[in-house]
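Q: Convert this sequence to structure tokens.
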Amino acid sequence: MKNTYKAHLALLGANVIYGVNHIVAKGIMPAKIGPSAFVFLRILGAGILFWIIKSFIKEKIKKKDFRIIILGGLLGVASNQLLFFHGLSLTSPIDASIIITAVPVMVLIFSSFLLKEKITTNKLIGITIGGTGAVLLILYGNKAGGTSSILGNVFVFLNACSYALYLVIIKPLMKKYKPITVISWVFLFGFLFMFPIGIQDITITDFEAFNLNTYLTVAFVIIGTTFLAYLFNIYALSKVAPSVSGSYIYLQPVVSFIMVSLYAFALGHNEYAQDINLIKILSCLMVIVGVYMISKKAS
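A:
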């Protein structure tokens, strides 16, 4: 019981970090650093930290499993993070935080096809409601004003699909090996896939223009959003079911709403004021209802 309590705290911490990341990371993109360059630093920095821990764990991956590890690096690290940061640089932090909650829905859909998991009536209703909310938000796009963008929303949605497929294909390996071993290799291959894209942005990044806030933001994304959040999720997944872990993603829109409200009204960032409106609130509620139906056990 005590370990489960700690697992829930870990999940809470990870998703609060993710929710804060939507507004914090966007604050320096693309004015200070391009999305690809940011992802380059994120994967490189967190990857180094993971391999430092991995150096104390003597565990080898079987050759036949490297195919999944390599695909995981492409889907779960390179494509996932590039799509998300490019999407976030174009669209509203609130839009991104709501659309990213499509991950548990997409996991359910991919699991039904690849792992032959049964989709119950409750889950089907949840997919329909939550999916409608996400699609409504994507199509609403920049018609709402503020910092919304249809293209940015599409990028974030593709990011959610990529990460969801990664979770499904990597799940068997998480049971076969220690999670830190799997993630270390996944980040290594993810970095190799991302390198040709990110290195171009890195070479044209004006690091002399960075101020203290820029460096603190980059440090938060590397250490907080990537390294610590992944560690929190790893610990939690060893104690609770994946469905429990997935349900915490729905805290992210709430955190982002709070952060955007703080920026818009308390700190005077008027460009975010229009990001809070009825359509987005309704979309958020539909997604939350959707996940409740998906996680609800069939009676």
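The radius of gyration is 19 Å.
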